[in-house]
Design goal:
Elements: H1 2-10, H2 15-22, H3 32-43, H4 45-48, H5 62-67, H6 93-98, H7 111-117, H8 119-130, H9 137-145, H10 156-165, H11 180-191, H12 199-206, H13 211-221, H14 226-239, E1 243-246, E2 254-259, E3 265-269, E4 272-276, H15 292-296, E5 302-307, E6 319-322, H16 324-335, H17 354-357, H18 363-372, H19 374-382, E7 399-404, H20 411-414, H21 431-448, E8 470-474, E9 479-483, E10 492-496, H22 498-510, H23 518-540, H24 545-555, H25 558-567, H26 585-597, H27 599-602, H28 625-633, E11 650-657, E12 660-669, E13 691-695, E14 705-710, H29 714-723, H30 727-737, E15 738-739, H31 746-761
Parallel strand pairs: 1-6, 7-10, 11-14
Antiparallel strand pairs: 2-5, 3-4, 7-8, 8-9, 11-12, 12-13, 14-15
Helix pairs in contact: 1-2, 2-7, 3-11, 8-10, 8-11, 18-19, 19-22, 22-23
Keywords: Heme, Iron, Isomerase, Metal-binding, Signal
Protein name: Peptidyl-prolyl cis-trans isomerase
GO molecular function: electron transfer activity; heme binding; isomerase activity; metal ion binding
Amino acid sequence: MVVVGLLLMCAGVGAGDALAQSMSAPAAAPDYATEIQPIFNRRCIACHGCLGSPCNVKLDSYRGADRGGFGVNPYSSHVDASPRVGMDVVQTTKEWRQRGFYPVIDHDGTSASRLDRSLLYKMVAAGSAHNQPGFSRAAVMPLYAKRYNHQCPATPEALNAYLQSTPAAGMPFGLPAIASAELEKLAAWVANGSPGPTPEALAQSGAVSDKAAVAEWETFLNDPDPRNRLVARFIFDHVYQASIVLEESAGDFFRLVRSKTPPSRMATDAAGPATVDQPVEVIDAPLPYDDPYKYAGVDRFWYRLQKVTTPRVQKNHFVWRLNKGSLAHLKELFLARAWDLTQDMKPPWGVGNPFQIYRAIPAEARSLFLLENAEVIVGGITYGPVCLGQTATYAVKDHFWVYFLDPRFDPSVQDPKLGLETWSAMMDRFPIGNAEYAEAYAKAQKKLTPEGLTVDAIWNGGGTNPNAWLTVLRHETNVSVMKGRQGGVPLSQWLVSYSGLERLYYDTVASYKYWEGDLGKLETLVFFNFLRQEMEDNFLLLLPEKERAPIRQQWSQGVFGAIGRFVVPFADRSLPGGVSGQRGPLLDAIARIQAHMGPAVSGPADPLNPIVKPKISLDSRMSGYGRWVKAVSLLTDTTAYKFPRFLPSVVLLRLNHGRESRVYSLVVNRVYKTQFDLFFQNGEALPDEYTMSVYPTIVGGFPNLFLEMDLAQAPAFLKELRSVASLDAWNALRNRYGVLRNSARFWPTLDWFNAWNFQRRGEAAGHLDLSYYDLLDTVY
């Protein structure tokens, strides 16, 4: 019934007239929690679930839908700062209106006027009218090409004009329309005034499984002892973006926040002990080290574990898993050591220099905290709350392994100030200041390890902690991280010191202002390049001295690479030592590192990306997944073929065999002359060095393409893939096996991958993002 009115409206009849013709009264309002939010979860949060989503419309909660949109495009170039748009910046819709947010749903008027005034409904209705399966992909692509210049219509009249000129812009944008039953539910909800979740639904979603476990952590974090207060501040700075899982509170996710209200307290009345819950009132200061007292106008604040009630989105979801053993370990790590109580135990706020602020905490404890939770720390860098990375990722190479200096061999732990006169050079982003730090670090390293570094200087996590070896992947505009040695042998490696990791984290996370103009973001990017070079140089110290300069030049080539190598001095290039052997310096060093780490850290053998390829023919029939693994491994970690240069960044493959289906990620590893070229990345490409890696799971949060095939089809697919030597050939292969954005199979395929992700990866899983799905061919 509503669909009839919608089609009339899209044909040119006014919404009010169409509805008058199609129905006499709206259907009852669907329940928000059980009927409307699930639609948003399945079809909307893939693009509208993060900070800075299109038009700043965030649909992972009723608060976000009611807040509406904002006209400033977060990804367009702008010199001046834009307003912060995090959901806790203000608490009420009225306050968001005062900040310039406009409504996308309408609570007032008649049913017909609510539908006519709802921007959200009008966009979904336009999608239903124009983007049924089989719609023209060509009509969508020009809109994608200009997506960073898009202006968001803020009124129904402006939106009507926009949709009249660009009818393909309906929602879900550039994807098949939602099902008619879902559209009718949305129409009934909007027509009835877009009511939110009931108090009972809110109470149920906010309920915590184990309040005692939460209380134990909040007690620790709010202990008034000066050491505890400083440790809690240090922890908050480093994990405030993480999704926290307490094993004792099954099924719950939390985030660590600062609150105006204290944790739950025990009160005694005539009926005996009772828990009095104090609702969390988040103090959302711009940066984690900003003064919460001044920002919130309070004389005291508390650290709280706030339950997360919004759906998990893969692109910004990373987990810090804790239990009672973790709490005991943190107390021992930080509080069982001797502190220098002559240092400032109440350091000032607003200073983005962790070396200065936390100098009273033993440096070894700080270092070990970061090492033992390295995936979480790097997760903050790679899975930040913003939607898209764009050029921010240019400083990151497509595939590299990360190791960490053992605190015993780390000069920034053993001599935290590195002999510098002040702490300021530790966080100086400019070339001269960074060079001063590099020289001081090199001098301290030579003093600490005069015979040079060996693989024994690498922290191995006690042979049990897989955080000791990380794999980092860049997928053009976004980055992901995994534990262990994965994806074949990358071209470059990092060896990270405590000071290097802190500098990297504070540059890209704790001090990063997503709302500021381009100049500030450029400064962050330039400093990241300095840090990347520093980490690569540290690794080169494990190689023979004669090998260091040639490999350094190979890792950063061309004019821009030469400039970068000059600007970032290799101050300790003459440090003695280095691994030598028969297979070449890199492979010899990696082999020794793997032996030093042990199998629990490095992970199992990687048959999908081996150096030595199996003896198998692609003409062989595949009788099981084992044959597939061997066959596809012929195409991985090799530059023998041209096809990697035409692949999109991440392809998710569903491979069926009988009643079983397995998931593989086909990931392209692009290579550039240098990461110091900030503006002409594609012009610095070295496509002959591109490779493909395959992973037996979902990688990243931004799939570019879904493929589906039966195992029996796999030999033909691999032979065709191996022979791809042009974009046209790749497109032909993609069209045969891929699920394009206009396919009737698209939503069922996405639903299947999301379900697999949550079922197989559990707490690490989130909803996949579609921002880069089936993009312009010229992009890849």
